[in-house]
Amino acid sequence: MTRLFKQLKPYRLLIGIVIILVFLRSLSDLYLPSLMGDIVDKGVVHGDQPYILRIGGWMLLIAGLGAICSIASSYYSAKVASGFGKNLRTKVFTHVESFSLGEFDQVGTASLITRTTNDINQVQQVLIMMLRMMVMAPLMCIGGIIMAVSRDAKLSLVLVVSLPVLFIAILIVQRKGIPLFKAMQKKLDRLNLVLRENLTGIRVVRSFNRIEYEKKRFDDANTDLTQTAIKVNKIMATLMPIMMLVMNFSSIAIIWFGGIRISNGDMQVGDLMAFIQYAMQIMFSLIMLSMMFIMIPRASVSAVRINEVLDIHPTIKDAEHVQKAGNKKGYIEFQNVTFRYPGAENPAISNISFTAEPGKVTAIIGGTGSGKSTLLNLIPRFYDVNNGKVLVDDIDVRSMSQEELREKIGLVPQKAVLFTGTISENIRYGNEYATEDKIRHAAEVAQAADFISELKDGFDFVMAQGGTNVSGGQKQRLSIARALVRSPEIYLFDDSFSALDFKTDAKLRAELRKETGEATVVIVAQRVSTVMDADQIIVLDQGKMAGIGTHKELMESCKVYSEIVSSQLSEEESA
After folding, report:
1. Rounded distance, CA 95 to CA 454, Å?
2. Are 365 and 554 in contact (CB under 8 A)?
3. Which pLDDT value is given to residue 208?
4. Which end of the chain is more exposed for a tag (fewer CB within 10 A), N or C?
5. Is residue 199 a contact partner of residue 193, using CB atoms and an 8 Å limit?
6. Are 292 and 130 contacting, i.e. CB atoms less than 8 angstroms apart?
7. Chain-centre distance of CA 413, in angstroms?
């Protein structure tokens, strides 16, 4: 937690103000019982009415100032904690944005969501408690002990017996509670994971009639979390009864022995009343500390989880000395590239070498799991190669800045991803400065204009989260329009035509030829009809190149390609 609280530097002045306000409030609380004891001894006992009014007015003034300090300290502590939470969420989100796909796989999306929301909220809440109580509780405890001893040193021996009992109880509860708090956060991760999978995969769940199965999964995760929460709350709940018992027995002991001392003439009634108040203040300060001990263990677990995210150093980062691209635009070259996913025994692709040039279409085809999408993901540097080089404009992508590299690329991913907002905003996501005319032109080229015009609000039609209120083919066409509006040097289409019918596919590819005439186009496809007209076709088989050439050349020289063609097309079509 100490590392996280370094983020509080911008709030040092406010924290100082909070500490001063809490200090002043504590002084007022400590001074009031003493004045009350004086009123009883000098005013009530001796019947001095003016003294009672004078000291009573003074007590009201001190109580009012204490109330003002309390309100102000609560306001400023909330302001500090809220600002701290905001800054920490921003830092975690910004750091996560720099992760490569490998880091996302390492932590998991569900866990990242929990750490960015629930865990930061836990730390934020304990910060408010610390600012309000961590300063006040020790002051009240130490000050109360000093004032109690000043009233009657012998009667203070009661506190010598009761206080160690409270400390021991707090330590035992804390020792048993911390491991359970760690388990709770992990089980919360699991619950989020199950819930997220169920919500995002609701169509699959319903289509396979697995609603009851998903309910059971959720109930199991929910019950597991609930049982752990009940167990930890039972442990923490024992603290309050113990403290109340100690407080009440202490009060009985103070009144018992105090009454004896009053009857012997060793103590005044007002002193006993003040002493009881100071004893209660000491006990309540320990209760405040115990609340801190309940909150801090859970917050410390959350802090560790947040630090785990912040401690992950992205494996893909810009080189110290970044090289800028030269005059060439859109040239892609693979030189003996081999890539293996972390933890995998065999490489996903091996010894891949080819060149893709501007004005030409390079198609990649192969069976499922042959490494087509993996190869494409190496161009925008979503992963770094293990061996060999990926060159863009004659520069190794590892030597270019990620921003400059990706500025050159328009990617249409295999799974079309759309965001909440209008269709126009989704297309403009590829180029925030795109005009309305450019957006409409991109939609026309992507064969999306027809279905957009049929929608109630046209380009102002609001997309649901993930684009669930349009079909798969419509999502793919909008994704293609988003890439086209960017006007990049390199187009990467990762199986982006699979949801389109043959007629729309043919029309779209014909329009793309005109639109991307000077750019480099790399297409990953399953359908032979999509790649037949490409300038060069790369055939992958189990991560290795089985052939490269035009459709005609590969039909004669590549057995893998001819088998794919024969499985999809008739003899007349393949010719």
Report:
1. 42
2. no
3. 81
4. C
5. no
6. yes
7. 24
Dist. CA 232–CA 114, nearest whole Å: 20
Written as six digits, the tokens of 205 are 């769940």
410 forms beta bridges with 491
100-107 LR contacts (CB < 8 Å, sep 24+): 100/314, 100/315, 100/316, 100/382, 100/383, 100/384, 101/377, 101/382, 101/383, 102/315, 102/316, 102/342, 102/383, 103/312, 103/314, 103/315, 105/342, 106/312, 106/342, 107/308, 107/309, 107/312
Domain of 492, CATH number, reads 3.40.50.300
Q: Does residue 394 sit in the same domain as residue 504?
A: yes
The answer to the question of residue 526 being in a domain is yes
Measure the CA–CA gap between 27 and 136, rounded to whole angstroms: 10
CA dist 358 and 365 (Å) reads 20
**341 and 211 in a common domain:** no
In which domain, by residue range, is 468 found?
332-574
Q: How wide is the angle at C-alpha 506 spanned by C-alphas 333 and 541, nearest 5°?
A: 45
Mean pLDDT throughout 240-250? 83
Query: 453-481, pLDDT tens digit by residue?
Result: 888 888 898 888 777 788 888 888 898 89
Structure tokens at 280: 């209660």
**pTM, 2 dp:** 0.72
Exposed / middle / buried, residue 385 (Cβ in 10 Å: 0-12, 13-18, 19+): buried
Cβ proximity of 360 and 535 under 8 Å:
yes
